[in-house]
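Summary for the lay section of the report: proteins are chains of building blocks that fold into shapes. Here we show the chain for LPP20 family lipoprotein and then a coded description of the shape we predicted for it.
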Amino acid sequence: MAALTGCKTVSSQVQHHTGDEQAQREAELHAQADDAFAELEGKAKKRPLTPPQTSPALQKPSASDPMVKTHQRQPDWVMTPPSNPEYVFGVGSAGINSTSATASQIADEQAKVNLAAKLRVSVSAVNNAQERLQQGVVSQSFNSEVRNTVAPTSYSGLSIIERYIDKANATVYALAALHKASALSNLQQQIAQLDQQLLAASQASAQGSTLNRLRKALPSLKLLAQREQLNQQALDISNGQQSFALSPELIEFQNIIYALLDTLQFRIVQNGDAILRDSLIKTLTDQGMRVSQQGAADIVLSYKVNWRHIHRDSQHYQLANATVSLQDEQGKTLSTFIEKAKGISSDAGLAKDKALEKLAQQLSQSLGANLVKAID
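The coded shape description reads as follows.
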């Protein structure tokens, strides 16, 4: 696109010409800039346009009709967003600093953000608090890790319907619209599809050992998190009036997953680092995990620590590098990860104790994320 190329080079090139040549060159460069703006608007001109209106033509956005109307004169919505009970609107703008195409993309995103900000409803807090009452410490930790892997979803049906290029101020404006009824209908369909997947997972994970059942059921936590996002969108769009609650069967399945997580048995294999072992057992037990040093277990945790000692300026630096392995009851490795910690003290033994304490904390914090990867 030549838009900014024409605009940016005007001042730099004019300085090299004088008199008539300079005037002629200025005219040519200004013509290039005008042509560049015309080119930017040309894409919109190739599409059928309706006469400029003070308010946008409200049609339900659809993938089959992605036309974006471009105004030649400033529309009213630049200063005052439209008002229509069936729609939600958002306005965004961006300065043309590089190309109009880039500015349009930025303005589009700003319009979508502006629209989404109008839909925020704090309805989910009560639901989340009630859900946590059904969870133990372990399942809460797992659920938090799973939620972190779920990317935020945009509002389905949200689209850019109009733009305005302000040539005088080198600014692009965009108008985003969301048809409420269409969006709610689409959300209902998406949630129904997720519910079918969840019911199938519930049946598939009904039998077997705790770990085997979790392997089949744990991916459902991600589906439940996605479902919660979609349901929150429905609450946002309907101003808290429309919600798609979990069925009793799915509530029971969700609670079964939590119970399986909270009853997982862990065994730590001793490897000579008694301080780390005892500290790790205490830390994990305080977090609500069932940990032992012997007997049957769903997951066996073994570790090996390599040390590096540095003595400098009357200070002892103890550097710990731990390799941790998670195995199932058959000895199959589920996950392996590494954690590092450092302890500093004028006493070498105290420096090592500090490093071990930090290492135990870090291992317990990363255990949940690695268990999710191992079981999932």
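Put simply, here is one thing we learned. Residues 348-375 form the longest helix (28 residues).
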